[in-house]
Amino acid sequence: MQKNADSSPVQYLLLIDDLDGRRAARERGIPITGTLGILERAAERGLLDLPQTIEQLQATSMHLSDRLVRSLLQRHEQRQKLRREADRGF
Description:
The chain is built from four helices and two strands; from the N terminus they run E-H-E-H-H-H.
C-alpha cells in the first residue's frame, strides 16, 4: 500500500463520467466520482456557485441527468439552509 508523506494511506478517487468506464471501475472496487461530484465538493468548500455552474454546464454539449441535477441541487440547498441556521446560532 502506498503512503502519503505523513504515513497515512493514499486514497484514490477516479474522476470519470463515461457510463461503461464507471461500471468497470465499480466492478473492480475503484472509488469513482464524476464531474458533478467534483463540483459538489468544490461548492461545499465555497469555491464556486453550484447552481450557476450547473446552469453553465447545461448550456454545453455535456449530458446531465435531470434527476441527478435535481438531487444535487436539493442537497446543496439543504446544506446552505443548515449553514445559514448555524450562522444564526440555531
